[in-house]
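Practice problem 4.
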C-alpha cells in the first residue's frame, strides 16, 4: 500500500439523501470478551484476556471482563434492541475458550448452545449473523504452551474453525477468521499493552506469521465444512499511513510502517508472499527462512470472498533527524516497548487542526476514503466491508436519562460520507458495521472509554440508545445519509 496525503484534499460537502448501493449491508459489531461476561459459566475457562485483566496494573482501574455488558444473559433483549434500531446485521465474535476450553479436543456443547441460541434469535429478528472466530481471546492453556509464536497454535485454530463451521454452518453464511491480527501479534507480544502482555520483538513477528497461517488453515477448514454459498473473510486494521513531510526520510518511515503495519498481512494473504522490504527491515530480529515452512504461503493465500477493513484514525509518521524516536503517538497505548519491530525509531504524530476523540485519536474521514481507494486499486476484484468504524467520547446521561452524543453523530456522518464517496469512485464496498453496538470493556482502558451507540449503565446493565443510535437507525431506514451532520 502506498502512502498518500488525503489531508491535502478538501473533503466534499455531504450530499442530501446520498444513496448507498442496492444490497449495502448495515450492521454493528461487538467482541466476545468485551460484552459477554459469564466468564466462568457453562465450562468456559480463562482466555489470555481473563488472565491479563486480573493481573494488577495491566488494565485501568483493575477492570475485568468478568461481567462486561452481560450480553451472555441479556442477548435476547439486546437482539430486540438491534431490531428496534433497524440493524440488518450483527457482527459478533465467538469466545474460543467458551466452546473449546483447552483449545484442543471436542467442543463443550453448552458453550456452542449459547451461540446457536444467539444466532437463532438474530434470524428470528431478521438480522444477519456475521461470525468472527477470533477477537484476541486465546485460551490460556494454549498461551501456556507458547501462544501465537508457536506454530501449533495455528493448527489448533483450524480445528476450532471446523468445530464452529459444523455447529453454525447451517444458519451463519458470513464468516471472519481473525479480527485485527496486527493487534494480536504486536500489541500482545511486542509492546505488551494487550494480552498476553509479552514484550518480545521476535515473538511478535513469529506470532504474525502464525496468525497468517491460522487464517489460511481456518479458511480451508471453513470451506470444507460450510455450504458452498457461505462467505469467508478476514478483518484487518489497516493503517492509513502518511509521511509527516515530503522528505525522503519521512517517505521511508511511511514505507516501513506500511510494511509492518499492513503488508505483513496483505502480502501473504492476498498476494502469496511477504514483501521483500519487510523481510529486510526485520531480518536482524527473526530468521524468516526458518520460520516460513514449505507450503505456508500457499495455505495463507487461500481465496477469500471479502476483506474486512477497520478504520478509526490516520497514522502519521516521520524519521527524527537524530534517528531516535520521540513520544509514540501511534494510538496503540503507552509502553516502553515498541509494537513496530525493525522500525522502532519511527516517530508518530497527531494530525494538526483536527478534532480528537476521547482516545486522543484525530478525526479524519478522508483517511477512510483514501484507505478504501488504496485497497480497491491494489485488489480490484476483492469486495470490501467496513467492519469497524466509530469513536469514543465522554458520554453521560442528562437529567432526563437521555444520552446526547452530537460528536459521535458528526464522526459517523463524515465517515459514512467517505464510504459513499469511495463507492462513487469505484470501490466495491458492500457494507458498514458501526463500532460498537454498545459500551463495553475497552481492553486496557477498562470501562473508562465508551464507543457504543447504546449507553450501558454497568451498575444496573440498563441500556439506553444514544442520539447516535437513533441517527444511525434513520440512516439505515433511508439507505442514505440525511443532509448535514
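Answer key:
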Amino acid at each position: 500500500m502506498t502512502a498518500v496525503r488525503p489531508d491535502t484534499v478538501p473533503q466534499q460537502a455531504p450530499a442530501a439523501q446520498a444513496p448507498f448501493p442496492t444490497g449495502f449491508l448495515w450492521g454493528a459489531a461487538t467482541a466476545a470478551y468485551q460484552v459477554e461476561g459469564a466468564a466462568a459459566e457453562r465450562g468456559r475457562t480463562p482466555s489470555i484476556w481473563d488472565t491479563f485483566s486480573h493481573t494488577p496494573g495491566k488494565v485501568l482501574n483493575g477492570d475485568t471482563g468478568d461481567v462486561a455488558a452481560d450480553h451472555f444473559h441479556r442477548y435476547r433483549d439486546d437482539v430486540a434492541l438491534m431490531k428496534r434500531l433497524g440493524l440488518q446485521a450483527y457482527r459478533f465474535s465467538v469466545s474460543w475458550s467458551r466452546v473449546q476450553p483447552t483449545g484442543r479436543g471436542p467442543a463443550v456443547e453448552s458453550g456452542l448452545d449459547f451461540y446457536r441460541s444467539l444466532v437463532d434469535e438474530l434470524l428470528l429478528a431478521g438480522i444477519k449473523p456475521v461470525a468472527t472466530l477470533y477477537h484476541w481471546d486465546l485460551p490460556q492453556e494454549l498461551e501456556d504452551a507458547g501462544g501465537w509464536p508457536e506454530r501449533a497454535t495455528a493448527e489448533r485454530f483450524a480445528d476450532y474453525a471446523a468445530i464452529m463451521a459444523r455447529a453454525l454452518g447451517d444458519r451463519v453464511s458470513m464468516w471472519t477468521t481473525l479480527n485485527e491480527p496486527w493487534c494480536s501479534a504486536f500489541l500482545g507480544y511486542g509492546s505488551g499493552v494487550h494480552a498476553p502482555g509479552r514484550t518480545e520483538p521476535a515473538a511478535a513477528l513469529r506470532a504474525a506469521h502464525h496468525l497468517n497461517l491460522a487464517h489460511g488453515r481456518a479458511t480451508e477448514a471453513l470451506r470444507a465444512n460450510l455450504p458452498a454459498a457461505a462467505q469467508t473473510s478476514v478483518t484487518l486494521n489497516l493503517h492509513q499511513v502518511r509521511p509527516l513531510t515530503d522528505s525522503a526520510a519521512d517517505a521511508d518511515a511511511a514505507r516501513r510502517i506500511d510494511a509492518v503495519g499492513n503488508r505483513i498481512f496483505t502480502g501473504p494473504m492476498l498476494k502469496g508472499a511477504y514483501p521483500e522490504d519487510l523481510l529486510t527491515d526485520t531480518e536482524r530480529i527473526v530468521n524468516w527462512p526458518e520460520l516460513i515452512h514449505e507450503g505456508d504461503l500457499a495455505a495463507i493465500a487461500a481465496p477469500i470472498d471479502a476483506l474486512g477493513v477497520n478504520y478509526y484514525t490516520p497514522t502519521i509518521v516521520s524519521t527524527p533527524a537524530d534517528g531516535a524516536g520521540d513520544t509514540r503517538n501511534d494510538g496503540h497505548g503507552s509502553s516502553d516497548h515498541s509494537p513496530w519491530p525493525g522500525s522502532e525509531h519511527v516517530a508518530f504524530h497527531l494530525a494538526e487542526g483536527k478534532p480528537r476523540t476521547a482516545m486522543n485519536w484525530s478525526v479524519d474521514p478522508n483517511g477512510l476514503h483514501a484507505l478504501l481507494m488504496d485497497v480497491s486499486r491494489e485488489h480490484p476484484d476483492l469486495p470490501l466491508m467496513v467492519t469497524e468504524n466509530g469513536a469514543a467520547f465522554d458520554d453521560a446521561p442528562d437529567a432526563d436519562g437521555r444520552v446526547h452524543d452530537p460528536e459521535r453523530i458528526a464522526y459517523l456522518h463524515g465517515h459514512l460520507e467517505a464510504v459513499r464517496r469511495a463507492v462513487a469512485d469505484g470501490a466495491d464496498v458492500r457494507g458498514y458495521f458501526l463500532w460498537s453496538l454498545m459500551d463495553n470493556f475497552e481492553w486496557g482502558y477498562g470501562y473508562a472509554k465508551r464507543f457504543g451507540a447504546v449507553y450501558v449503565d454497568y451498575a444496573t446493565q440498563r441500556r439506553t440508545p444514544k442520539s447516535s443510535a437513533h441517527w444511525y437507525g434513520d440512516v439505515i431506514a433511508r439507505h442514505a445519509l440525511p443532509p448535514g451532520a
